Amino acid sequence: MKPIKYEKWLAELQAEIGLLDGEPVAPLERLKHTLTLTRGQINAMRDEVISEGFSSAEAEIHFFKKIKPGFYALQIYEVDFYSLIANTPVGTTEMIRSYYEQELLYLFRFFRTHAFHYQYYRTGARELDGQYFTREGKPGDIPVLEIVDPWPGFSSPLDYLFAKFIAYERLQNYLIDQLTVLYAGVKQLEKNAKQTPKLRWTGEAINLVEVAYGLWLTGQINDGNVTITDLVLWLEQKFSVKIGVPSRRWNEISGRTHSDPAKFLDRMRAAIHERVNEELGVRERKRKARRK
């Protein structure tokens, strides 16, 4: 089992699906395209996992807790997003707002129904990983109500539920964003935007790619539950810069065979060290001056 390869597959899949965001693609066409992409990757990964197995219990837990849910979350989100868009009423703002609120309440009830396991997911707990994320694991005293096991040897008690948590949090954020617009109104949002300082990224775009991947790989945003595509889009919007497809820009970084792949982050690190050393020097000189 090759976790690094699968994580690269996931990043590339997220990036490819992310290209559809904001494009004039019909909802049904988007769904067909994304399902083809996700199913192809999942099937290829499933065949390898079943035939090769895992090198250790830790590798198995990592796969079923982090990797497989990431793939399935993309699939679940696209299906539910299509359903959300397709069923949005054609009517007044109040009708649409009521519809979004009902959908948001459904997600809230889902999280509440699975409260124990959702808190386990949210807090990054690890005590029960052996029970929850191995193929021979048992869910224990608290029943798991969301178990899908179409392929023996490719499922654990909680991997599908974790995938739903990831997908539903993303859907929840989408609904909250839509409701914010409906409640506040476009004019109020524009007013708030004017009050916020406008900052631009004036350095090289590849340097911001290093920052994005550094934040993503270390799980600094949303408790690690964010796609690299969403993070890059957020940085592009905040800093008024065009980064491009994350997986392609990552190839520029990973292809630095004769230099440090994180050279910009190392430059930042060196600058911080220099600043700290300068401050320490000033403090030492003041201390010596007081002794005289």
Task: Walk me through what this model shows.
- The chain has 292 residues and is mainly alpha-helical.
- The chain contains 12 helices and no strands.
- It has helices spanning 3-18, 27-52, 57-86, 93-113, 115-122, 129-132, 159-184, 186-195, 205-217, 228-239, 246-254, 263-291.
Give a concise summary.
This protein is an all-alpha fold and 292 residues long. The chain has helices spanning 3-18, 27-52, 57-86, 93-113, 115-122, 129-132, 159-184, 186-195, 205-217, 228-239, 246-254, 263-291.
Number of strands: 0
Subunit organisation of the chains: single chain
**Count the helices. How many?**
12
Shape: globular
Instruction: Give the CA-CA distance, first to last residue.
Output: 67 Å
Class inferred from helices and paired strands? mainly alpha
Poorly predicted runs? none
Give me the Rg, rounded: 23 Å
Helix content: 55-70%
Q: Note the main sheet.
A: none
Q: What is the residue-mean pLDDT, rounded to a whole number?
A: 84
Sketch the topology as an H/E string, one letter per element. HHHHHHHHHHHH
Strand proportion = under 5%
Name some characteristics of this structure.
292 residues, 12 helices, 0% strand, globular, mainly alpha
Describe the SSE topology.
Layout: H1 3-18, H2 27-52, H3 57-86, H4 93-113, H5 115-122, H6 129-132, H7 159-184, H8 186-195, H9 205-217, H10 228-239, H11 246-254, H12 263-291
